[in-house]
Amino acid sequence: MLDVRTILVVILVVATLQGVGFFVLHRTQPAIPGLRAYGTAFIIFAVGMALLSARGMIADLYSITLGNLLVASGHLILTGGLYRFFGKRRPRWLDVIFAVTFLLVFPLYVYLDPGNISLRVLISGFVLASAFLCMAWLLWQDDDYPRPLRWILIVLILIHSSLLVGRGIVLFLTPGQVEMVANHPLHALLFLETNVFMTFLFIGLVGLVMARTAADLARKNRELTAEIGIRQQLQEDLSASFAKESDLRQQQQHLLHLVGHEFRTPLAIIERATEMIGVLITAPPAAVAERLRAIQEAVRRQRLLIQTFLATERVEESIVQKEPLELGDLSREAVNYFASTGQETRIRLTAAPDALPMIGDTAMISTLFVNLLDNALKYSPADKPVQFALRREGDRAVTTIADQGIGIPAAERERIGQRFFRASNTSGRGGTGLGLHTAMRIVELHDGTMRIDSKDGQGTMIEVSLPIAQPEAGLPEAGVPGADTDLPSATGG
């Protein structure tokens, strides 16, 4: 004969293990809703069954009232967990029915007639069945999860609900009082069925979790496949853009080469014409001689402007066309470059007493001096001079350019030299943020160093150190074999 207490203990152990299992699932799949509620429901149900099995050993108030309350709470929480799993909210009317039944009716009936269980079993059977029917209806409405799994769970729930209600009706119609924990065949069979049902319910709920995990994985795979397709399309578009940009850069290089050549040709003609005029006219008047010198100076400035522009284009491509040059000559040409704007009078040039020969790119070094002087003049008051000094230190030529201008804010000094970066205190003054960046690249391409010392509101001092050519050094090879002197780079400066 089946022992009811033994079956209750088995239910207690099984429900506890099932609750722990759902908590483990929650730890591994925290994004899936409802798993924590499942675990809580099974644990509370197990505690309630423990109190029911202790009837006769503890007061009826705890064993019956509290035990049934915990069992009912477990069913209610389990129902809520399934609703959360499907992304829905548990019906409010179900909460009200459970609260009225197990917080008001049940304690009152236990107090009035603790020995008679027939009406209590009937009422609890209908109430618990209502929770299970809500679960069955929820599974019936869903179309996302496997149909066989949902149908199996629906059938199990309907059978268990029918047995709960049927047990209540049988006991209610049976005369006399029957203790719940007595070894009555009906109780033993119903509790055994409950154990089997809870086991299959656990398996079914785990099956839903696995189905959801598989569906999420399939969805993520589809999203990943779509994202890969989008990235491939973007990569193709980017490759096409790069190819188009490369073609445009080649056209730009060709255009700049052509424009540079077309500008230099008339400048050379003008320069030669002024030289011939100076030769043909014996003792020209002072006004004519001054005009000829002005023309020659303007031609030199224009030539330097073209060289500077083309050199800036070549800097970003690291195309260095090295040749012997003299820094003193280039420094004077850089000062004369600003004659057209009348700012050359602000530059205080202190040349080295000896020649400073080096092997480098003439156009780039000229661009270096022009960019640094332009920044110093631009960011300092018009009535303040700019110091431009060259000196020799061992095998290095050191150039210093110092102004008394706005300086660089301390918080922004680390970013100075970044492409297109301009300090916050330069607003209202023209510029692109490329001048100092280009200068630093030129120094780097010539194995030099640059040091910047600046104080906000007190001016900036830039010191450039470049290697001096050794006496035995000859003309080195160009940075890029076969590079044309007139050919600009693809990057703008």
Structure, described:
The protein is of the alpha+beta class. It folds into 2 domains: 4-229; 281-467, Heat Shock Protein 90 (2-Layer Sandwich). Helices cover 62% and strands 9% of the residues. The chain is built from 11 helices and 7 strands. The chain has helices at 4-28, 35-53, 60-85, 92-112, 118-141, 147-173, 185-280, 286-315, 327-337, 362-378, 435-445, and strands at residues 323-326, 347-350, 357-360, 386-393, 396-402, 449-455, 459-467. The strands form 2 sheets. A 5-stranded mixed β-sheet has the order 2-4-5-7-6, with helices on one face. A two-stranded antiparallel sheet has the order 1-3. Strand 4 (386-393) and strand 5 (396-402) form a beta hairpin. The longest helix has 96 residues, at 185-280. The radius of gyration is 46 Å and the shape is rod-shaped. The termini are far apart. The relative contact order is 0.07. It is an enzyme of class 2 (transferase). Residues 472-493 are annotated as: Disordered. One of its GO terms (biological process) is osmosensory signaling via phosphorelay pathway. It holds the Pfam family HATPase_c. This is histidine kinase.
Question: Count of helical segments?
Answer: 11
Oligomer: single chain
Q: Are there runs of 5+ residues with pLDDT below 50, and where?
A: 474-493
> What composes the largest sheet?
5 strands, mixed
Query: What is the helix fraction of residues, given as a range?
Result: 55-70%
Mean pLDDT across all amino acids = 81
H/E topology pattern: HHHHHHHHEHEEHEEHEE
